[in-house]
Design a protein that fits this description.
Elements (H helix, E strand, L loop, with lengths): L2 E6 L3 H12 L4 E5 L16 E3 L4 H5 L6 H12 L7 H15 L2 H7 L28 E3 L3 H18 L3 E5 L1 E9 L2 E10 L14 E14 L8 H7 L12 E2 L8 H8 L4 E2 L4 E9 L9 E5 L5 E4 L15 H8 L6 E7 H7 L1 E2 L6 H4 L3 H5 L8 H9 L3 E4 L2 H11 L7 H13 L9 H9 L3 H7 L14 E13 L2 E2 L6 E3 L5 E7 L21 H19 L1
């Protein structure tokens, strides 16, 4: 044997699993097709949000949460309804207990800290037992995605220094080796060296071959979000037709190759049709990877219109129901939609997802964080206003619509139709109460201290010139996560067609649907992707170590 265990994929789940193994005294080889600069994978680019339940941060913000409420929200969101949801359901219960139990203490002991204002993502579909978070649970890590990675990168590098861990970068796995029904290693191609910067696409030119043997192989290679062809192949009819145009929310190396390779080794793949893509995507004005998109993290006040200029119905408001909105928009005949808002709203409510779009939080700069309360948009948002292809600014609705129609000449909007809907909404602001469900939601959001402080603008009329100029933002579908994947039991063992473990084969992270082959079911509560990598990686590493 070349080592005790091989980990395929040097992302967050793989690093957590590898360091659990080295902590237990095992020898590990981590294989990844990218150069070393990409250590940590796509987690590096994330906003660093983590789902925690009944945390000190929540309690300080006046939020009353419980494991019972979180589990109710998870079940209402997941909608488990298939026989193959047996293992995902068990993983989900274990993860919610983890998020309400030792998760925070475990991460805190390793140096992780969180922004004190807890975010309220995926506010739901309006039903107490339906989709969405009943309370704010989105804890932004101090340091964003790199801050989540930091403890595990540090431990991996320390293990490498003492010889317990070896990285095999630019090694692409093409086959999981199976001998007499048991997995014994991997083989594949050594790729040409690359000096490309982090996230930039690299060549797939082979310069040699390799084979490694071990007692266990753990696959942690991510999902399919960088491969639009695979996304479209798996796209379910319940979400309408797949878009012809999408922007890409993950680097190109998130290509889904290892899913088929794991299946060829005897693993079962379930819930391929479950996926998570955002509807607030922007074309990055300064792209790193092909088709690079950035997601707006919106507050609740922007008016949302489809490509024909029709306002979206309740409860499809910004930040409420991602996949419900996606399904609605995919039946409108257009690949784009629009936010229409004011300068006051963009100043208070617009944030951008990703570590590189939040230099204050990523760089742990208190002065820069405090600058968010100053007048004007944050600098990354202003950069998009100044340079982005998706923004129109004007002083009248007529001028605004003219700019919108210039951006989408194939989907013309009537200025009179758009203005009528805005005026109808604005009349709801003449009182402190209203029948417009979005206006009611804005008032409700400001009852939460965190939203009132930094995330929700004071209610005002869109056409009030004191809050101008007007802004329109063209939105595209942004690919992100696979919610299905390789089926695993609660020890992260990959299961075969008859439900039995494939000897020597394990999986963790997105490739395993974050646990069980689809821990989220049909939808996510947000903050659960990084957390799913942490939990499934830890579980897999400990399970493999116990079997060595």
């Amino acid at each position: 044997m070349d080592c005790d265990a091989i980990v395929v994929g040097a992302g967050l789940a793989g690093l957590v699993a590898a360091t659990e193994l080295t902590d237990a005294g095992a020898s590990v080889v981590v294989v990844d097709q990218e150069p070393r600069v990409n250590l940590g994978g796509q987690a590096f680019w994330s906003f660093g949000g983590l789902f925690l339940v009944d945390s000190p941060e929540q309690r300080r913000m006046g939020v009353h949460d419980s494991v019972e409420l979180a589990w109710q929200d998870w079940l209402g969101t997941a909608g488990f309804d298939r026989p193959e949801d047996h293992w995902p359901g068990l993983w989900a219960r274990a993860y919610v207990d983890f998020a309400a139990g030792e998760k925070r203490a475990w991460l805190h002991e390793q140096g992780m800290r969180w922004f004190p204002v807890v975010g309220w993502a995926e506010r739901g579909d309006g039903r107490a037992g339906g989709h969405g978070n009943s309370v704010p649970r989105f804890h932004v890590t101090w340091g964003t995605g790199p801050g989540v990675l930091e403890p595990f990168v540090r431990k991996a590098v320390e293990a490498e220094a003492v010889g317990r861990l070896r990285f095999a970068f630019r090694h692409r796995v093409d086959e999981i080796v199976v001998d007499a029904g048991a997995v014994t290693g991997v083989r594949g191609a050594v790729l040409a060296p690359s000096s490309a910067a982090r996230g930039v696409s690299t060549s797939r030119d082979p310069v040699g071959a390799f084979e490694l043997s071990a007692q266990a192989v753990l696959v942690s290679s991510g999902g399919i979000g960088g491969n639009h062809d695979l996304v479209r192949q798996a796209w379910p009819s319940r979400l309408g037709s797949p878009p012809e145009h999408m922007v890409t929310g993950v680097p190109a190396y998130v290509d889904g190759r290892m899913i088929g390779i794991t299946e060829a080794a005897g693993g079962t793949v379930t819930n391929r049709d479950r996926m998570w893509h955002y509807v607030e995507g922007l074309h990055n004005w300064s792209p790193i990877w092909p088709g690079h998109g950035i997601r707006i993290l919106p507050g609740p006040s922007s008016m949302w219109f489809d490509g024909s200029g029709n306002r979206l119905p309740p409860p499809l408001f910004p930040g409420f129901d991602t996949l419900g909105t996606l399904a609605h928009l995919r039946r409108t005949g257009h690949d784009h939609s629009w936010f229409v808002l004011t300068s006051s709203i963009v100043e208070k409510e617009f944030a951008l997802s990703g570590s590189e779009q939040n230099p204050d939080l990523t760089g742990r700069s208190i002065p820069l964080v405090l600058s968010r309360v100053r007048p004007g948009p944050a600098k990354p948002v202003q950069d998009f206003l100044d340079h982005g292809d998706d923004f129109v600014t004007a002083h009248t609705v007529g001028e605004l619509v003219a700019g919108m129609n210039t951006l989408t000449p194939y989907a013309q909007i009537s200025a009179a139709h758009l203005e009528r809907q805005i005026v109808e909404r604005d009349r709801q602001l003449d009182n402190d109460f209203a029948k417009d469900a979005q206006v009611v939601a804005i008032h409700g959001a400001r009852r939460y201290r965190g939203d009132k402080l930094i995330r929700t603008a004071a209610p005002h009329k869109i056409l009030d010139p004191k809050h101008g100029p007007l802004i329109a933002v063209r939105l595209s579908v942004l690919t992100r996560k696979s919610l299905g994947g390789v089926q695993t039991d609660l020890s992260a063992r990959v299961l075969g067609g008859a439900g039995e473990p494939v000897p020597g084969l394990y999986a963790a992270g997105e490739v395993a649907g974050f646990g069980g082959g689809g821990v989220h079911g049909y939808r996510s509560l947000e903050g659960t992707f990084l957390g799913g990598c942490l939990f499934s990686g830890r579980t897999a590493g400990r399970a493999v170590a116990a079997e060595l």
